[in-house]
Hints:
By secondary structure, this protein is an alpha/beta fold. The chain has helices at 82-90, 112-128, 153-169, 201-217, 229-236, 278-287, 306-315, 327-335, 339-345, and strands at 7-8, 18-19, 44-48, 62-70, 95-101, 131-137, 174-178, 224-226, 258-265, 293-297, 320-322, 350-358, 366-375, 388-393, 398-404, 417-425, 434-440, 464-465, 470-477. It is globular.
Amino acid sequence: MTCKKTRLLLALLLAAAMPVVNGCSDDDPAKNGAQPGTDPTDTLARTTYEELGTAFPNPERGFYYPYAYHFEDGQIPAALTAGALTVNRTVNRTLVLTEYFLRDFIDKPISDQALALIRTNMETLRAGGCKCVLRFAYCNSDAESAKPWDAEEEIVMQHIAQLKPLFRQYGDVIYVLQAGFVGVWGEWYYTDHFNFQPATAEDFLPRRRVMEALLEAMPDDRTVAIRTPQALMMCFGLTGADSITRATAHDGSIRSRIAGHNDCFLASGNDVGTFGNKTQREMWMNDSQYTPMGGETCGVSTFCSCSNSLSDMEKYHWSYLNISYHQGVIKGWHDNKCFDEIEQRLGYRLVLTDGEFTLHPEAGAPFKAVVRLKNTGFAAPINPRGAELVFVADETGKAVHTVALPDDPRRWFGGGTYVVTAEFTAPALESGKSYTLCLNLPDGAETLRSNPHFSIRTANAETWNAALGMNRLYTFTAR
């Protein structure tokens, strides 16, 4: 691919433009023709970026594939493999559902061997550049013959206590923990020990205790997803006025850390009992601006049309969705030509539009950067994430200076446009050498922040520096 060179047009239009990009690679920014305006006093180079129209892997969003691990009849299942994660990333998936069925431990502690398998899977996720939607359950059949469907509350609490060290150690690769434990498939419905079809706050108390134990066991910056808004409201005595707000989002409180998951999305007018009234719908619409929303479809209905599917995904800020179920719904999206849009818009999709940068950067002098972007996805990034500008030496490919930004990507909501502005003292750069200014959006966890697989890529052509996991903004020659 021909390298697109940044050109500095001098105010008096000298005989020819001066090329200032040295040694650029074929993935330098498209249209990185940063140019000053016609005003001779203009000190800013202006750059536009080309939007990318295809899907690609990005962390903590998108379709996921489920992996079930059954501890039954003394068997320890095979662990998640690096190869499986490689295949997932190849088809743009960075999330997997890891669902552990603790059948053998329904009346006793989880074995050391089972805990070791969970640990191995977490290590594999870290190494493979993926994260999990995590769930625990005891039974995967609602047949009477499959009873007991879940464990007694005392055993559940014991299991959560055993899992807490793993939650804390590997919270970096847990995208969200679905509450689980209660009922068949951990979906809080068919249950032997947690009041089947609870109707009062007292009925919900055992479930509340499970939620509180899970929230305490998880890292403070991770959410626990509950199956229905009714369960959320009844467990914690909430009304429609208690939705998460911009002021209370991400403040570490219990309320800010409770998400929802919908495992019968679009299957009927109320998603097969997921919603009981308008207030419950409104609460999830509000909460899901700040917490992960996802799950799976469970049957074909008239509500699965492309127009309604896209509308509901926007309203409820969908970030993740099961690619394997329901296949009839997935096929309908393919047949009616909206699958590609859904694939691209699940979660966030950040697009650089244009930027302005100091035209002739000099060490010790003021440097200004203004970057405009839009989020064409359904949702914002959810978990903690950094934002910074990084100067990269083109000759070595190494980062030489970083400027932290005050911007919080979790505030870049779906459908919005945003401006990132930074003014700072330019770092000491070697005169005559080529540098590229990059936007870096790394994972918030120290264990992952230097891993490019966990950094956000913008949906732009030829801006992605895959080796560093950064987005190229502006290439210049230092004075």
